[in-house]
Amino acid sequence: MNKYAIFLKIIELGSLSKAATFLNYSQSAVSQAVNALEKEMGMTLLNRNHHGVSLTSDGSQLLPYIQQLATAFQQLNDQAARLTGLTTGLVRIGTFSSVSTAVLAPLMQQLKQAYPHISLELLTGDYSEIESWILAGTVDFGFVALPTKKALTTIPFIDDDMLAIVPSDSPLSHYTSLPLARFEEHPVIMLTEGEKRGVLELFKQHHIHADIQYITQDDYTIMAMVENHLGISVLGEMITRRTNYHIQTVPLDPPLTRHISIAFSQRKQLSIAANEVVQFLKRHAPAAQ
Hints:
GO terms for molecular function: DNA binding; DNA-binding transcription factor activity. By secondary structure, the protein is an alpha/beta fold. Helix content is 43%, strand content 28%. It has helices at residues 3-13, 16-23, 27-41, 57-84, 97-114, 127-136, 194-205, 219-227, 272-284, and strands at residues 46-49, 52-55, 89-95, 118-124, 141-145, 152-167, 178-179, 187-191, 211-216, 232-236, 247-265. Helix 1 (3-13) crosses helix 2 (16-23). The model has no long low-confidence stretch (mean pLDDT 89).
């Protein structure tokens, strides 16, 4: 990885040691990359202290240009790969738990066999975070639920039915489908933004005043809380496929499906490696089967 990309990873993580661990480099190698960049620029770019690192005033002013240099360096590598016929590079993907566990993980071995010289970095977040990462260039592409931002190009990937999550020993577990009105009668545990976007809109459309008492960002935390009778929830079917929690999934009445797409910025061209990964996922997308 070039010194410009290393510098950007340090800024992203706020620490030389964290960047070294993430990149699987020694801290000395990361420090040398920063020193080389500062020597090249003829100025100090980072403030270093026991709390981590931060940009100096000069570093802040040069940051956009360093980002451009990192992009140009990647484009140079892409062109070299194009000329040699060898697809290499690091591809950063914004994703969320259900896609990672139910779809990406089973495809990883095939992807690695098809493109052995491509490395993948998965960043996990909610829909809004992933959209922001794509537009900021933090990731090459990501998975989002439709509708999404107009500045993003999308490719349909998979549909995921949203299900009520209730304790396995609850009377609600015997329902063949759960009326939305039941969410007014029981404590509700919601995910932050992500699924919350579609679920709350469904509640609003049907004039349901859900008794939301907990909000968390983790699907598995929700399942554990439901198992312990802290409330009921709504999660995508994919995330519930492999779980040992004592919970029961019940279809919603009326039903709700989230439409998950691959998304990338309209303003930035995908690298060769990122485009190859997108095309691979497109060919293997459940929506294309």
